[in-house]
Amino acid sequence: MKKTSTAKAANAANTATEQLKESIIKHLHSTLGTDVNKASHQAWWRATCAAVNEQVFDGLRNTQRTHYEQDTRALHYFSLEYLMGRMFSNNLHNLGIYQNAKQALAELGLDIADLEQQEEDMALGNGGLGRLAACFIESLATLNYPAVGYGIHYENGLFQQSFQDGRQIERPDSWREYGNPWEICRPESVQEIAVYGYVETVFDLQGQMKKVWHPGRIIKGVPWDIPIVGYDGSAVNVLRLWESRASDFFNWDVFNSGGYIDAARENVEAENISKVLYPNDETDAGKELRLIQQYFFCSCSLKDIIRRYKRRHGDDWSHFGKQVVIQLNDTHPAVAIPELMRILVDRAEMAWDDAWAICQQVFAYTNHTLLPEALEKWPLRLFEKVLPRHIEIIYEINRRFLLEQVEMRWPGDDAKKRKLSIIEEGHEQMVRMGHLSVVGSFKVNGVAEIHSKLVKSDLFPEMVALWPDKFTNVTNGVTPRRWLKACNPRLATLLDAKVGDDWPTDLKKLHKLADFAKDPALQDNFMAIKQQNKADLAREIKKLTRIEVDPAALFDVQIKRLHEYKRQHLNLLHILALYRRILQNPDYDMVPRVFLFGAKAAPGYKLAKEIIYAINKVADKINHDKRVKNRIKVVFMPNYRVSLAEKMIPAADVSEQISTAGKEASGTGNMKLALNGAITVGTLDGANIEIAEEVGADSIAIFGLTVDEVKALYESGYNSYDYYHNNPELKAILDWLETDYFTPGKPGELAAIKRSLLQGGDPYLVLADFESYLAAQQKVDTWYRDKALWAEKAILNTASVGKFTSDRSIEDYVERVWQLKPCQIKK
Ligand code: CR1
């Protein structure tokens, strides 16, 4: 019995492989216009993508037809960022044809790994927030939920980073310079949107007052669809990204009246809107173009949703709130709230209360940060200039909110009104997008338990008093398809054998592994895989940086955006402490470690760039110092991005999650690293707390002040000099940074870090956590010496983090916020 079914499966795989091969050759000829004899890897890759797309597009058509026929309620994810990375291997895995493709290509004399490297990352995001959106849309497709991702088709994604004498250099990222095989242009669904101009008050024949917006400029939005393949390949959803163009209609007049140059200039201005992603992670750019970007994509997307709705329901709006739910990924798309109000009140001529009721059925808002510099506020003057009608609508939303909610609850309390008003008073009036998002949404969530608690207690306590049921938590997650199956094939194969091959859609299954955590055979296999992954990464490190590292050393990894609150400089202080101990004691006994960093700094963030420079300079010194005898190597990997993360994460022994408690909303790298068997050195912050609960106190190295202790310390008046004066080692390494030891002939080049930690007041409590951080690292050193003990902890990490699949996050959203039903797609 078993034999025949295995034989059948083998036959089917053979046919699939043959068909793929044929299709690849066909596309090499007819799509790429080249020939097997002269095709480059790039051409082979494109031909293979075209072959894969035959299946992707079948799935896409099936899915769209089914959703239309069944008139499903759908989620619309509004996000300024999608950090997709590469799509090739993921699409193959999710279609279940990775092995066939690998085989087909091998038979054509090609290594699939070489082709994978041909793809540019689709880096339309900064960091965690954008990557979360990418994981979520993949999970939504996998779980068969009707969903569309909406965003911007940036011509340039996040800048490419290189180092020149240790300093970060940014270059533009033209990810689609030669076209991208995964995107489909949809000219039939173009939208036109308006900005600028003025509002006129008119009275109709019945004497009703009406507002008429006379726009100053019209911009065309051209949609590009990226198919999102669910795992097992039956549902294929879309990510719809808008590209801005000059409106033909609008510029025609200017052109005719002889204003050819003016028309050309306007074209450039219109096209600028989707030209580039703002490279700030967790800081508000506050620029006019950014507001226009936000409005542009929200307006295009809402019109797209309404067009689809009307195709089914005509002018009957009564089902809109049942069919449509919109998730706002942070406040960036919050302008969608007044835009929907404008469409309903001004265009559909609906009564305000009815329109508002619809809005409040439709919008939900996710908060991703408590950092004050990230909380978006727009100068009222600017808002008024760009969106003159929307500012009036916001005034009206605010007037009613203050009157019907705040005044009712706290009569006569002007201080409360000032605090809660969507318009901030002051030297310059500002529009508070966070307030607008909470007022306009039916649900508000944070992204980890602790963060959601802080959103309620520290950010919006009065809003909680008004609407206690509005606030909820959905802890973040990551897709195990990309972050284990595709990026760590060796471990994936071991897991298939040990727990069965359904773990990619049922990650709790990994828990079976815990029973074998002490089993020497499993430990050997598990650690042998880690070793091979480390050897692969060592080769990559050599290729990218020319630095040689020993795969037998402990690989200590910190990968995330560069930010003071994430405290890469705390990591650096630990490295300096170890180095100094070695210099003072040539026999200093420590497990050899490779410290690996990957991080981009926002181009305007000076101190972040100084930290990169300092790490590079210290690395240079240590890596060439014979006295170190390879006990320490420091490597800053250039151009950290999704595809590099996929190489680093499977090779990590230690995961650095060392933010100041209360500052990292969740983190998602922490989940990916633990899933791949790295042991976390971390603070009780964000999702680290939940990871610790899952893996158990013995399999994680927790250190540092807690959220409450951090608050207490700030309140009692933190003085970083106390720590500097009381810890001679800490004092010595900080003073070291002021000398020219790491920058010969140029003393003081690394002094900015010391300055920020002392004169600057050390806003993120680096010095306060230093001692306890070093103690946690010492513990890790001890653990690592005991191979069996380490293997057990590593296995327990992989076994215990099933909770952090993005499938679970999506099911939480469905239950707590979206109220969706899955829709099975027949193949
Ligand atoms: C948070 O800093 C979180 C991601 C995704 C980031 C990070 O801790 O994992 O969001 N916040 O929820 C952010 O980018 C603008 O705010």
From TrEMBL:
Transmembrane segments: none annotated. This is Alpha-1,4 glucan phosphorylase. Allosteric enzyme that catalyzes the rate-limiting step in glycogen catabolism, the phosphorolytic cleavage of glycogen to produce glucose-1-phosphate, and plays a central role in maintaining cellular and organismal glucose homeostasis. It catalyses: [(1->4)-alpha-D-glucosyl](n) + phosphate = [(1->4)-alpha-D-glucosyl](n-1) + alpha-D-glucose 1-phosphate. InterPro entries: Glycg_phsphrylas (IPR011833), Glyco_trans_35 (IPR000811), Pyridoxal_P_attach_site (IPR035090). Keywords: Carbohydrate metabolism, Glycogen metabolism, Glycosyltransferase, Pyridoxal phosphate, Transferase. Its EC number is 2.4.1.1. It comes from the Bacteria. GO terms for biological process: glycogen catabolic process. Its cofactor is pyridoxal 5'-phosphate. GO terms for cellular component: cytoplasm. GO terms for molecular function: glycogen phosphorylase activity; pyridoxal phosphate binding. It holds the Pfam family Phosphorylase. It comes from Alishewanella agri BL06. Belongs to the glycogen phosphorylase family. The modification N6-(pyridoxal phosphate)lysine is found at residue 672.
